[in-house]
Records
---
Amino acid sequence: MAVVLGNFEWINWAAATGYFRRLFMQHEFGLTEYAIRCLIGLALVLGTYNPYSLSYYHWATDGIGMTPLKTLVGVGLLILHSVAILSGVRSLGPIGIGLLTALFASAAWVLVDNQFLDIEDPRVFVLVLLVVMASVYGVGLSWSHFRYRVAGQVDSTDVSQNSPI
Amino acid sequence: MPRYDANPPIKFVALFFKRWLASAALVFGTYNPSGTSYYHWATATPGLTPVQAFTGILLFGLAVAFFRTAYLSIGYVGAGMVAVLITMSIILAAGLGLVDFDQVAVTTYMIEIWITIVLAVGVGWAYLQRRISGERYILRSPP
């Protein structure tokens, strides 16, 4: 029995690649994908700054060495923030961002009114503002997918023009 | 990721009825003459509670999204055509003797059902256009 190295005819390629084809090609945007983007936005915003002294801001301003690493992480965070903000501005526009901010702020108002949040504490107040911002990040990253799934309209970015965003 | 090179078949009935249900929930939830709606809930007491404000902003945002999407897909002309289509179907029903003209009255319910049908067709139209002619509706500068 001769086993020739490099003979892969015994592999059922259709079955072997089927999982990835389903994963990447017939992928429908659902609540899971939205939750992933929300969590990423939350991690990005709260990782950059939060009022509980455990964030990139506090690490970068504590003045204890590791300046190259701090610069590297800072530029990485800047890039991620740019991607999130620009996709939100493009897909939502000022009207959408205003409406979503009002929506999440009123949700926070509901929680405050029912004594779930104590915004007399300035740290909680700042945290609520950051979570509202992160939620807008999450919707901004998802909105084009939602629009495509619900309405079939495709958002596009005209990169050949000198677009401000 | 959607496959832009494919022309997948659409389930027209499911596509349309899902969007019709969603727009009906939006429109009838905002106002209907039966007395149970967001409008009646919010105007029953002076001032707004936080939950009422949240629901109002949510409904307003959804309405903006739905009307904007429908307007982008079919525009005023398409909305007018759908309205004329509904009117003609009523006239046809009268002509066939299914209803009498005397019974046809323009009520609030009827207008709201018109709005929901226009919204449902508008929101789903891009899928239909892609299936029919392969043309995608692209937003050059969204939203």
Note: DSSP finds four helices and one strand in chain B.
---
Amino acid sequence: MVATYASYWDAASPNHKGRTGTFEYFGAFFGSFLNAESVVSELVDTNGLLSLSAPDCEYGGEFKSIEAVDTSTVKFTLCYPDPAFPSKVAFSVFSILDKDHLDLTQGDSVAISDNPNGTGPYKLVKWNRGDSVVFEANPDYWGEKAKTQQLIFRWSEQSAQRLLELQSANVDGIDNPGPDDIASIEADPNLKLYPRNGFNIFYIGFTNTVPPFDNLTVRQAITYAIDRQRIVDQYYPVGSSVSDSFVPAFVHPGASPDIPWWPYDPEKAKELLVEAGYTVD
Amino acid sequence: MPQFIARRLFLLIPVMLGVVLVTFLIVRLIPGDPCVTMLGERATPAKCAVFLERYGLNDDIFTQFWRYLGNLFTGDLGDSIRFTRPVTTLIAERLPLTMELTLLAMFFSTTVGVLLGVVSALKRNTIIDTITMIIANIGVSMPVFWLGLLLAYFFALTLKGTPFVLPPSGRFSAGLSPINLAEFWGLEAPTGLKGFLVEFMSNTVFINVIITGDWKLFWDALRHLILPAVAVGTIPMSIIARMTRSSLLEVVGLDYIRAARAKGMTERRVISKHAMRNALIPIVTIIGIETGSLLSGAVLTETVFNLPGFGTSLVSAILARDYPVVQGFTLIIAIIFVLVNLIVDISYAYLDPRIRLE
């Protein structure tokens, strides 16, 4: 139900040199997905297949054209190469919707999220707002069928509360245990810990138009002055690492783990501050 | 008595109008541009133009107030900016849980509190009195979130495997939820005041169960509410116990009680019929105040027990600057306080005939 699945990513992808990519959508359809403000020319319908194209790329968007090649394939022609495109189309807000569903909901985002429609292994049964979301297995799912008939997600803000729910066997699993609870989970013979990557990134941002941060040397000095390894060791759960880019190291595209980041070097930081006209004790 | 109630009800009209006026003005009196206040950094001139038009903030204040009143009577409190859903729907989703929690908590605190207070007063200066008052003092000084965590831990983990086990958080067990009454009655998505009432009754478990007969849900909801109700009811319980003790001790020393005893009445009858009635007035006051404040949301308890109630919703709306929600929820809280006070006043009149004549 969450994201429409692209099973096949054409070699002529924008990842490489070309500007066209072809997706094959299983159990999916092609909807008029740029139907809002049309800077793009009108929808053309040939043999029941829709296509949409811009006269040129002057309108500032990313799409030159979007066409249905057949009932399960849609072809995007981009205005410029975009290596993140496959990740972008997997975004739920960007999912390709059934035309009938779009007609029914009139493209109203609230109506669409109230009556979700998709091609995933589970179907939404009920959304108990503020409490839980109930799913059931989708019998018509095109891929490997869901392993459980029912799936219930409950929302719980407190990690202590989540752990208590798990320990009292009211839930089968929890995500995001509190860092302090990891040791007790590992010690409990009834529980098992499955580590996963975390998306949490902590960073300090500068407004580079405000003094003294408008001075590049000062910003560099601050970067050299921060012992990031120590912050990670002191304040983050086991398994956390120092990030060498703006996104976690396992995120692709995005992370550039091969490019070295600024090391911790307090002496260098002092030098740079002096260079920037400050006195350092 | 009917005259007294009628007079009190009549007095409600100006009070309610005042409440409506104040909640209306809250949003309008915030210094600066309402658009910038609500949309924050996303407020561009183009967006603000649309925003002001959409919320009718371009009109003069009298037109706005008139429209606000008109909308109120049709059950329209505007839309939440954050959820783009009607505020009345949010109230119908969140208020029932808080009401149920309050009723259960006040039931607990009143029965236990009055009982402890009476026992303590009757056994004054004995070991029973001391123990009872120690319990009350601990209760009143125990932080709600801490007591909540302790209760959850004890009843969910320590008692696991016994018949006394209780769920540590949530409103229902996984997979259970109230039957939607609109569907139950085969109504086509009712709107306005009717829609609000149907939604409200759907979410109020004890009303829902009477209509649908879904007792499984009722027992499940009750089991989930016991711990939060005890946690949030402990402080009122302790206050009520102490108040009952002192109030009863004061009354028991009066002449008319001595006269009642001199008549040869049994002690039980003296206390229950003569002393309690007069001792109850300060207790009823406390019960009223505590009920009102619990109904406006027990934020800590709701957080500790992961209950999607009125308090947590209001706090998150305040933090997100979702003013239509803040305005609507504040209005409801004010109305609740007014109604609870009305009930308290009527109980005074029932308990003390002199009040009726004033």
Note: The CA atoms of residues 4 and 95 of chain A lie 6 Å apart.
